[in-house]
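Dear colleague,

Thank you for sharing your sequence with our group. We've completed the structure prediction you requested, and as agreed, I am returning the results in plain text so they can be pasted directly into your records. Please verify that the sequence below matches your submission; if there's any discrepancy, let me know and we will rerun it promptly.
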Amino acid sequence: MTEVTFKDLSTLSPGERAALVRRSEADLSGFTDKVLPIIDAVRTEGDAALARFGRELDRAMGLEASSLKATPEEFDAAFDAVEQEVIDAIQYGIDNIRTFHQEQKPEPMWLKEIRPGAFAGDRWTPISSVALYVPRGKGAFPSVTMMTAVPGVVAGVPDLAIFTPPGPDGSVDAATLVAARLAGVETVYKAGGAQAVAAAAYGTQTVKAAKKIVGPGSPWVVAAKRLLSHVIDPGLPAGPSEVVILADDTVSGGLAALDLLIEAEHGPDSSAWLVTPSRRVVDEALAALPGHWAQMSEQRVGFSKTVLTGPYGGIVLAKDMEDACAFVNEYAPEHLEILSEKPFDYLGDITEAAEILMGTRTPNAIANYVLGPNAVLPTSAGANTYGPLSVTDYMRRSSIGYVTEKGYPEMAARTKLLAEYEGFSSHANAVSAMRDPYLKG
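Please find the predicted structure tokens below.
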């Protein structure tokens, strides 16, 4: 049997425990040097570089500079290529995602009277342009299209564009085009990896530059986002998939193993840990994995075995549930499942997780596709400071202030005192008697 990584928290040194929470993209030094010339080529050559990298890196032999943007005819053909049941499932997921994000959308503006005659508040407006990155290297992801496009449309972003790697024939995955159109996005560029990030940042002859880019990607994408963060807002850190399955003694280890494989099958750079204080759950999970693998495709078995036998995945035995929850908080996972007959008993102990799925009937698979909350989530401990992708990620907030004749005297007097204390003479002058002649009434 494949030797699954097993760790007992009670036997680990502080250094070994710290190593347990590392992710594959923690060190991007090996990618940075490779990404830099790609960025420079796209910046200087534009479409020609995008097409060349599509052929060289994505093996899209039929890709030319003249065919970088999906045509209306390609969108139409996609609906003929995808089975109606799949189209219906995409529409079902989009409907739920739209409902969730419409509820999440803030009021356009609010104002509160802070003091008599002095008002302050916020105004929310959409960002003018956002690039949506949809990966394809280890599979096709119309689900990512759904998760990135719907909140952008709900937010009212006027210029949304999808970037996704082309297939071997230079085409876009058909289901991705279906999801894009059903979500309300008709601009899709055939570009992936670091070259897509560079195109979104600088623009090309075909690609319009964007203010921000959102969506998950490989370490190549993550490295390019970091290098170009002074040109384009890189959004939340979304790299290779990761999950922690937190299981107590009330559930089957076979179920825990089943859900552990959901994120582990994404790719060999994913991270996936089962943490439990129950030896029974550990043993049942180990016994169940071969049977689960027998029901998976060869490619996905290979990916998940690499993860669960390497440094970024496996099974962790905790002293008790308190210790297990502490490990979850140290890890700050992208996805967290709480497998228990009473999952809400532990919810209060979890403070560092981007997504928390409760109970035995809420597997990560449902959340990835159709539940409604966004499945684009911060990785590599980003959950310590970031939340899931949301409608507000496509919007900008402006503070609004309005002081009336009634409120001005008191605020001006206090402002003048503080400005003089800090030594800012122009600040003080602006609210002094010097202003009075310019005021009407």
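Summary note from our side: The radius of gyration is 25 Å.

Kind regards,
the structure core
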